[in-house]
Amino acid sequence: MSKVYFSSARVKKWRYEDSMPGKLELLLKEVGLMNYFSPDEWVAIKTHFGSEGAHRIVRPIFLRKVVDALRRIGAKPFVTDTVRIKGLDYLEVANQNGINHLSVGAPIVIADGLYGKDNIMVKSGEILGQIAIASLIHDVPAMVVCSHVKGHINAGYAGAIKNLAMGGVSSAHRTCGWKCGRGAMHTIGEGELVWDKEKCELCLQCKDICPLDAISFKDEKLEWDGNICWRCGRCERVCQNESLRLSGDDDRFMRALAEAAKTVVGTFEQGKILYINFLTEIQPECDCMPMADVPVIQDIGIMVSDDLVSVEQASIDMLIKSEPLPDSMASDKKVHAGEDILLKLHNRPYMMQVEEAEHLGLGTRNYDLVEF
């Protein structure tokens, strides 16, 4: 049984140590960073920079607390993510969302280069075969995974496993393209975009949201470049008339997430990764979308563990116990108290990713919750 350290988002006293930044400081002290990281050791703080319009990310103040805690033990931290859009644009998005050297007190680095092709092919499992791990994440000796818990169009639930699997893997490789990158997880290389002209209103949301410009319209006809598309599913998600369909396999996708996460974790020595899940601003969409909806669940708190599976299971258990918030997508979908909110929102078998991660030896679903 693994330990998961937890502090609630509720603040009932008017003093700093009862604030969420103060509680995070306490959690990091209690978990003992010196048990994982060494003086002068480079430590990647893996997070998600968000998107232009998607502001409900792990807030810079929390990243700063992690940076400061690592510096106090003599480690050398930096904050990183892999590119979702062109690298210079992504750094500007990070800056707009408040993540920069001044705010977090550490360098901001793109893990797979400005073009997203700085990666190393690593042998994976039976589903993926091999996959392109961002070279910086592959080479750095230690990492703190700071994950914003939320919904996700493909994964249903997005936490630390998704942060590792999609965030530690590049979108494409120089020679084998998206089939060796995170696109191989999205539809396992099988998805073909199908367009229903009769339902399409030519709103162009699908074109505008595509991070790779794989969609265009000519003479009011959709054109799709399947060679560069890495099958993220954003186009299908934003189509409000169901004129787009991108086929996939939910079961294999969830297993592929766990497999990719294991491949990323496998590039580190044992005991060199710490996981922090932020159950705050729990919105229904991924932070890579160009917007952020209102939260569907009230802020819950912060969890810290060295067990990937335990921190995910503990987070999900908290979410399932929570009540849906009014005037949110949860109310649009008529989710009632006691129901699994994220399952009702996206209808994805998201627990499979956690079950498969346990099966692959990434941790245990049995945990001891230590509250502070």
Taking Cα atoms only, what radius of gyration do you get, to the nearest Å? 20 Å
Number of domains: 2
Structural class by helix and strand composition: alpha/beta
Strand content: 15-25%
Assembly state: single chain
**Which CATH class of the largest domain?**
Alpha Beta
**CATH architectural category of the largest domain:** 3-Layer(aba) Sandwich
Largest sheet: 8 strands, mixed
CATH fold naming of the largest domain: Rossmann fold
List the helices and strands in order.
Answer: EHEHEHHEEEHEEEHHEHEEHEHEEHHHHE
Order of strands, main sheet, comes to 4-3-2-7-14-15-1-16
Low-pLDDT runs of 5+ residues are none
Give the averaged pLDDT, no decimals: 94
Our count of helices gives: 14
Number of strands: 16
Fraction of residues in helix: 25-40%
